[in-house]
Design goal:
With about 150 residues, the chain is α/β, with parallel strands linked by helices. The chain is about 40% helix and about 15% strand.
């Protein structure tokens, strides 16, 4: 089964990731695996860096990790089997980098209901599915139709 499971989480929209938590936990239990929660933080535009307090990056990372650790503590897995990371960058790039780094064999990603913008510009979930070197399980909120068009 799956030993290394990566679960991307937008801490501003935890409800999108929630459907995947239970599934990821069950798969980790079945395979004796571990979960890694990842929240990718958006970098501040270069032109704005001079206006950002020096401690911003540390406090932003600590807040994100604290939020992920609180989510992880609620999961039905022993504490040592849930870890968290919060890098800066583009969501799908950082998720794919972390998946490669940790040798993930599954990424469980939440996804919004598709709409017209998703079809034209794509989504992080679709980019992860398209470029991942491991299996990807896309979980949508309950009641979301498989296709909206």
């Amino acid at each position: 089964m799956f030993k290394n499971i990566l679960v991307p989480v937008d801490i501003g929209e935890v409800d999108v990731a929630k459907p995947g938590f239970d599934e990821a936990v069950e798969l980790a239990k079945l395979g004796g695996g571990v979960l890694r929660l990842i929240h990718v933080r958006s970098p501040v535009p270069y032109a704005m860096n001079e206006y950002i307090p020096a401690e911003y990056y540390d406090t932003d990372e600590k807040a994100a990790l604290n939020a992920l650790e609180n989510l992880g503590a609620k999961l039905d897995l022993p504490k040592g089997r849930v870890t968290a990371i919060s890098p800066f960058g583009s969501v799908y790039d950082e998720v794919l980098k972390e998946a490669a780094r940790m040798n993930a064999d599954l990424i469980v990603v939440g996804s919004h209901r598709p709409d017209w913008s998703t079809y034209f510009i794509g989504s992080n979930a679709s980019n992860i599915v398209r470029h991942a070197k491991c299996s990807v399980l896309v979980m949508r909120p309950p009641g979301t139709p498989a296709a909206s068009l």
